[in-house]
Inverse folding.
């Protein structure tokens, strides 16, 4: 089968690799599409090292079941599915408490185990979610990052009628803007890239005016150094800051400022199984839900995967690879 493999930082090739075998609790999936995100780009550039090279990237995937393991019941051959690409152990204390995002044994597809940019993949049946056959691929490749966005919104406690600031309008920030607007929140967005800002506006967000502050909630999605500190200055007392984007730079904020402002800081890491993915998949079927694919800007065939990654650094929206 074909797979897109990273051979060295910045270099991707489409090569032939063995087709994976289906274990007793697994399903074999013929992949149809895989989205690209900042985590993929971090591995692509070498900022995050994969366990080995060559390495198959990608974790935002959708496909169709073609084989069932001997112990699998429920999923069916021919069923379209999306993959929840963080395989938690389900037995440790955080997993038993419903905080599977904190599972120390979690296998992160595309990061700690091989990814989804290939013709076929094997996934544990517990982590595949059936979806309707009529849904566009552009929507389905956005389910995983949309779940990240919805989990951050859930953890924030933000209520309809409130307002917030979203920093960063990459694909993660765009999906968060979309989810918040759908939740009845007034969304202000800060983004230096005009094309991304325009796309956020098309989703119902408003570019941040210079005089808006005293906001009850902040969501930081970019991971850019220094922007959390800027955003905190826009928060009202008792405000909540939800950090989604990552970098390794220390925060330039004093404990005194956080205490005096009675600020709540929340680190929102992916999502928790099964509740968050279940809610996103359920929302796909809602007649009033916005199309997740509205954040998509570019699609590429697998043979052009290097061009897809190059585009993803500056694209106005989500970039995905068509494997159908």
């Amino acid at each position: 089968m074909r797979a897109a493999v990273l051979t060295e930082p910045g270099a991707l090739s489409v090569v032939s690799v063995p087709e994976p075998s289906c274990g007793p609790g697994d399903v074999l999936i013929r992949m149809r599409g895989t989205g690209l995100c900042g985590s993929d780009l971090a591995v692509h550039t070498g900022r995050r090292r994969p366990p080995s090279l060559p390495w198959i990237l990608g974790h935002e995937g959708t496909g169709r079941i073609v084989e069932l393991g001997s112990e699998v019941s429920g999923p069916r051959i021919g069923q379209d599915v999306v993959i929840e690409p963080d395989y938690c152990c389900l037995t440790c204390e955080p997993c038993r408490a419903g905080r599977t995002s904190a599972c120390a044994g979690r296998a992160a597809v595309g990061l700690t185990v091989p990814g989804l940019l290939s013709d076929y993949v094997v996934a544990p049946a517990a982590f595949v979610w059936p979806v309707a056959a009529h849904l566009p691929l552009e929507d389905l490749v956005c389910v995983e990052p949309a779940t990240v966005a919805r989990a951050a919104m859930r953890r924030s406690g933000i209520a309809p009628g409130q307002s917030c600031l979203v920093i960063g309008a990459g694909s993660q920030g765009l999906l968060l803007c979309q989810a918040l607007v759908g939740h009845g929140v007034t969304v202000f967005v800060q983004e230096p890239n005009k094309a991304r800002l325009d796309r956020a506006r098309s989703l119902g967000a408003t570019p941040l005016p210079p005089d808006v502050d005293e906001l009850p909630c902040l969501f930081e999605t970019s991971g850019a150094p220094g922007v959390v500190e800027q955003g905190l200055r826009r928060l009202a007392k008792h405000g909540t800051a939800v950090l989604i984007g990552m970098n390794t730079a220390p925060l330039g904020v004093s404990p005194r400022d956080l205490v005096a402002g009675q600020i709540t800081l929340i680190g929102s890491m992916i999502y928790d199984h099964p509740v968050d993915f279940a809610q996103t998949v359920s929302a796909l079927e809602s007649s009033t839900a916005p199309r997740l694919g509205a954040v998509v800007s570019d699609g590429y065939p697998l043979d052009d995967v290097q061009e897809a990654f190059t585009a993803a650094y500056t694209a106005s929206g989500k970039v995905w690879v068509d494997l159908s």
